[in-house]
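Sample pair:
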Amino acid sequence: MKIVPISALLLAPLAGLAQAAGPNPYDGRWSATLVCEDSRPEGSLVKGYTWQFPAVIANGVLEAQYGRRDGNSSGHFYGPVQADGSAELRVEGHTGGPEFTVGKVMPGSKFQFRLRGRFEGDGAVLDRVELRPCRATFVRQR
């Protein structure tokens, strides 16, 4: 009689799911930079900013965090990266100084926006969809 550890029995169904989905060609560690240039979306100057942060794509889902979660000047990036490289990410966070926000909102105000673009090879460019121009670039870490 062959004895099988309980952990193997519990994990066996999950292993089948992982094999069925298959690896995503963009899975791995990435370095990300979000640049929002100075702009005038409602007539008055909104100062630009740059965020640099690490990102991970696992099973075709990107996740990254800039700053302390729920802290001022923070952003949580997440969303699917398709096998063909197309991606639409959601960004949710809290604002920093009012001079960096459209409408000059109070620091710590919640925000959200989307980034849309494409991963190709070891890089990606995604552009902000709403309100003001911002561009996120990703570079694969080897």
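DSSP finds one helix and eight strands in the chain.
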